[in-house]
Amino acid sequence: MENKEQLERLAYEYQLLQAQAQLLAQNLELLTLGKNEFQAVKETLEGLKNVEEEKPEILVPIGAGSFLKGRIEDKNNAIVSVGSGYAIEKSIDDAIVYLEERIKEYESAIAKTQEALHQLEHKLQELAQKAQQLQQKQAMSFKVPKK
Q1: Interior CA angle at 143 toward 137 and 147, to 5°?
Q2: Which of 20, 97, 106, 116 is the most buried (most CB within 10 A)?
Q3: What is the pTM of this model?
Q4: 8 Å CB contact between 95 and 82
Q5: For every one of its 147 residues, what pLDDT tens digit does the chain have, with 9 covering 90 and above?
């Protein structure tokens, strides 16, 4: 009976850790998407620095894969989101530095999340091994009643 209770406890703990791992994996996906978005903006601004035209023509996305033609009036400055619905104007170089800092923050958060996920996966493997050992003990101690 003791083995059965231990197996039930291990199964419950395994389910909890599995749920935590799933949340961490989802968080990791969101962090990666966020980092990629900042990276794309940074690359766009870096590309803009190399454009010689004073007011280059661009395509402005308006949704559903549709665009409007437009012109960049000021290619030396960008309005950058600083969070909580606020945005500020920065020079292109300052905006790139700001974006690089945000990317580094994302990379740090990604690394920490990956490490936490790795530790959880290790714990899950340990629990699975313990459960397997208990099941083997239980199977070996099972006796067929004599008639």
Answers
A1: 175
A2: 106
A3: 0.80
A4: no
A5: 577 888 889 889 999 999 999 999 999 999 999 999 999 999 999 999 999 999 999 999 999 999 999 999 999 999 999 989 999 999 999 999 999 999 999 999 999 999 999 999 999 999 999 888 888 877 777 665 666
Q: Which two tokens stand for residue 14?
A: 């395994």
Domain that holds residue 31: 2-141
Residue 146 maps to a domain:
no
Q: How many residues make up the chain in this entry?
A: 147
CB 29 within 8 A of CB 139: no
User: Do the domain assignments include residue 147?
Assistant: no
The CA–CA distances, whole Å, from 58 to 2, 13, 36, 88, 94 equal 71, 55, 21, 22, 22
Please tell me the total count of domains within the chain. 1
Q: Tell whether 105 is covered by a domain.
A: yes
Between CA 100 and CA 56 the distance in angstroms is: 25
Distance of alpha carbon 79 from alpha carbon 102, whole angstroms: 15
70 vs 68: CA distance, rounded Å: 6
